[in-house]
Amino acid sequence: MSNPLHRYRILIADPDVHMARVLKVMLEGMGFSDIQMTADGQEALNMVKKTPFDILIAEWNFEKLGNLELINRIRRDDHSPNRALPIVTLTGRAEVADVMMARDCGTTEYVVKPFSAGSVYARLERLVDYPRDFVVSPGYVGPERRTKRTPYNGKDRRVLRLVPQGKAAAAHGIANDNANASPKIFEADYSLKRKLGLNHALSDLITPEVLQEAQERIESISSESLQWIKEDLAQLKSLQRTMMQSNDIGKSHLDLMSETALAISSRAGTFGYQKAAKAAYMLYLFCCKNLDPEKPIHCVIAEKHIDVLQLALSETLRTTVPAENDEIMDELQHLVNKYGS
Q1: Distance from C-alpha of 113 to C-alpha of 118, rounded to nearest angstrom
Q2: What is the C-alpha separation between 76 and 330, in angstroms, rounded?
């Protein structure tokens, strides 16, 4: 008997090709097989228009057509082939404001990098076993934002199928420019559940033992991950040196610094280098919220962040991590609090 998980089509859209491959390997360890990848947001949209994917897993940052715009085009475009497509935002951005922004844009689930087999599985289980009703309104198009945890045990039933936005407006009186139009709620779509079998749960196939095997697949390529992280760290150092030597640093330079720090945090945490992940995320937050290249003390603090990150990475080759590392990060946070504004 064939594995029902082979019936699902999954698209991974992530500009970090290394982490996209890690996710693909992990999903294959769970039992999924029809998995495609792209590193471009616009290409992801084009692929969704051409192929009936069951699930889209998309990063936040793309050079073209970022996550929020991609979601918006799928949810609201008149020519979208499936406005109710389940979308999982998988990103290193862990701030509450980011989660709320993605949710209000219409993402179905949100997973913060670093990820594990367990954290990804938990969101897939909600998509398959606990789908939510779908809301179409002028201000919001997406799954009902309250999580539905009641499994469907009844017979197969009709589901109200979404039609393109233009037709929905004509059929239900919903106009894009009418802020007072009443929202329309469509019953939850159990098509993913039907592919699995209405009498089965995802946990019947993806057992704790299977999840453990999927996690071990990630850990089997940890040696490669150190090289990826070292390359990111070298880029971070280069960006820092340029910032120290130049008085004319643009926003794109700072954005690249923050994105590189976030990539290190995602990669390091996924492969179990927790102290390095913490140090990198601290640098990411400093770059996003505080860093002003025209302030010498800010450049010094950024440099110290990188020094702490390098120290944390050096400890990954040892069996124990000294407590002094935690004390250094505490001191670094004190510097940020004192001179960050």
Answers
A1: 12
A2: 45
**Pairing verdict, β 184-186 and 134-136:** antiparallel
* Helices assigned H by DSSP within 51-199: 67-76, 96-105, 117-129, 165-172, 191-196
Tens digit of pLDDT for each residue in 183-196?
A: 889 989 999 999 99
- The mean pLDDT of the chain is 84
**Does 177 score more than 50 pLDDT?**
no
127 and 234 belong to one structural domain? no
Q: Give 36-42 contacts, CB < 8 A, sequence gap 24+.
A: 36/9, 36/10, 36/11, 36/12, 37/11, 37/12, 37/13, 38/11, 38/12, 38/13, 39/13, 39/14, 39/15, 40/13, 40/15, 40/64, 40/65, 41/13, 41/65, 41/66, 41/67, 41/69, 41/70
Give yes or no for a contact between 27 and 20, defined as CB atoms under 8 angstroms apart.
no
Same domain, 98 and 33: yes
> In the chain, how many domains are there?
2
**194 and 241 fall within a common domain:** no
- Summarised one tens digit per residue, pLDDT across range 216-239 is 988 888 778 888 998 999 999 999
d(CA 87, CA 7) in angstroms, rounded, equals 18
- Domain extent at residue 212: 4-217
User: Both 89 and 153 in a single domain?
Assistant: yes
